[in-house]
Design goal:
single chain, TIM Barrel, seven-stranded parallel β-sheet, 10 helices, binds zinc ion
Length: 284
Amino acid sequence: MRLASYHVHTRWCDGKESPEEVVLAAVRLGMTDLGFSAHGAWPFATEWHLKPSSYVAYVAEIRELQRKFRGDIRLACGFEADYLPGITYPDYGIYAPFAPDYLIGSVHYVSPPDTGILAPPWSVDAPTSEVASGLERCFRGDGTAAVRRYWELLREMVKSCDFDVVGHLDLPRKRNGELRFFDETAPWYRRELETTLDAVAEAGKIVEVNTGAISRGAMDDLYPSAEALAGLADRGVRIALNSDAHSAQDLTSAYDRAARALKNAGVRELWYLGDKGWEAESLG
Ligand SMILES: [Zn+2]
Ligand SMILES: [Zn+2]
């Protein structure tokens, strides 16, 4: 199996090491492909995003590493770009000045409809206490309303933005083990999921299987759930395997487990970024 991750963070945003340290670790692991995906909210930033003044230097550093390690590993330069309507979008039109090789589109922040852009949103990916306080602040503690809104925003992003890979598809599950703010088996949740899988298939996006919650101890499961993954396989949606590593030691964390889940779901091939764009290779 070609060993890859296109969802990798470094010190340029909230990761632990420099890109070169990550490349050296990837080569030691026998990885064939590595994509850097700095958190982007261009032209804005929170404390965990790439600073707007650093975009040019970030891209230049990855391009230099591509030259230096040519022959050892195939490197790519991308962004994990936030979708915050009215503020920032994961879209090639917006990121064009930096000529990325690929874009991951992620929803980390969720606001109720008709909220002013200055009101702090619910941070879905935050530590547990912050997820809980955001639910109270933005949705009066109504977890169902919050998660429905997450799915609505994700579908909007998929339909309206030009990017490659949907990041951590069912992210609200991350803190649901501790907070139990919604029921993944409820009919409304299953309907939201099915509608979203249809939208993803229709838009032709790639979906990542993301092992980041396991490696960081946030949730003992992959994104997306086994049920969602089977639904994606049924629809013929292209799948990439990513670690969402914030540290070199997590570059291929839980990949054996992910491979089993992929096979169980009926996924037969994974997608990789080649010289001429995304290409499939048998899961083997
Ligand atoms: Zn993310
Ligand atoms: Zn990430």
